[in-house]
Amino acid sequence: MTRIGIRGIWLTTTDSQVLHSQQSIAEAMEFLAETGFNVVFPVVWNRAATLYPSQVMRQTFGVEINPQFVGRDPLAEVVIEARRFGLKVIPWFEYGFASSYNLNGGLLVAKKPEWAASDRNGNLLKKNGFEWLNALNTEVQDFLLNLMLEVLKKYDVDGIQGDDRLPAFPCEGGYDQVTVEYYRQQYGKNPPQNPKDRQWLQWRADILTDFLARLYQELKAVNPNAIVSMAPSIYDWGYKEYLQDSPTWLERGLVDIIHPQIYRRDFKSYKGIVDKLVNEQFTDASLLKLAPGILMQVGSYRISSDELLQAIEYNRTCGIPGEVFFFYEGLRKDNNALGQVLRKGPYAQSASFPTLNDLNQENITIIQNQNSEMRKR
């Protein structure tokens, strides 16, 4: 029986050279295929720029591609090389509705000040260093959706991915004039000054969920087989802080695969969150959609071999057949140490990336049988 599961990795431009040349992309794809991966999530949207020549960006902001990549098309190169080695490609819109990082809004807000998000004091919305566009504004939503549709129409990709910034919006936002007026029309009063007021949280989260529904529908209209992938913050922290109502996304069938960012630095913390996901948020029918995000490397931190193996083994024990790692460079440090751990251990036997049919409920019996076999080992 063919093993099914998501074995993914994020390809970044931060602390990574992998996208800097077609040669390094080709070498990376070969390495990932040999290590047992079956899908890559290359960044295509960050720092107010795309990593492919974008007509949407050129028409809206006058910048066709990240200046670092002028004359190249890193996304096209990833697709070409990934296909050579049988890997799926799901482009990752890393910055989502964030306009900049510690740049006072940067190019996007400078060109479109009416798109800026506001906090309750009327200032540009900023949280953890990121400045934000107004994710509740339909023009801003249209812009992000058009970027995603452009990628899906122009490239031979297998889907698109949002994350902890799409669909997302800091709970401190929504105090711009347009949103306040919209709220007032519905409730006859101004929004609460408490950004975590329960009804105010839910009202804004519902707007984002409705945007995701539209995104899902329009992407599927272009390509019914496209995978809609999301990597949100963990619920319910992600709901209270960034209005990400991920259980409702699952209930409404608005995501095909989901990768909650369980970015913990010890196995006990990781296990606690997996337990909560499996027991409170996922059913047997939806478990195949779950491939947790595991923190492999960030800054000076890198996961140990033992904790990496523990996390994967625990996923399988819980019936979770896959995971996605942040990020590629962590595999390659110390002569590919963690890559070798995967290749000789849990990824020694290859796995097929699930089809949309696999992800549908009628196939759950096959998956349950596969998972029970894993548990016996």
Topology:
Layout lengths: L6 E5 L10 H14 L3 E4 L2 E2 L2 E2 L4 H7 L12 H11 L3 E2 L8 E4 L4 H6 L14 E2 L2 E3 L5 H17 L4 E4 L14 H11 L10 H25 L4 E4 L6 H6 L3 H6 L5 E2 L2 E2 L4 H15 L11 E3 L1 E2 L2 E2 L2 H13 L5 E4 L2 H16 L11 H4 L4 H13 L1
Parallel strand pairs: 1-2, 1-16, 2-5, 9-10, 10-11, 12-13, 13-16
Antiparallel strand pairs: 3-4, 6-8, 7-8, 14-15
Helix pairs in contact: 1-3, 5-7, 10-11
Summarize the structure in words.
There is one protein chain. Helices cover 44% and strands 12% of the residues. It is α/β, with parallel strands linked by helices. It has one domain: Glycosidases (TIM Barrel). The strands form five sheets. Strands 5-2-1-16-13-12 form a six-stranded parallel sheet. Strand 14 and strand 15 (301-302) form a beta hairpin. The longest helix has 25 residues, at 198-222. The protein starts with 6 loop residues before the first strand and ends with a helix.
Termini gap: 16 Å
Taking all Cα atoms into account, the compactness measure Rg is: 20 Å
Report the average pLDDT across residues. Answer: 94
**Segments where pLDDT lies below 50 for 5+ residues?**
362-367
Number of strands: 16
CATH topology: TIM Barrel
Number of helices: 14
Structural descriptors:
12% strand; 6-stranded parallel beta sheet; alpha/beta; 377 residues; 44% helix; TIM Barrel; 16 strands
Summarize the structure.
This protein has 377 residues and is of the alpha/beta class.
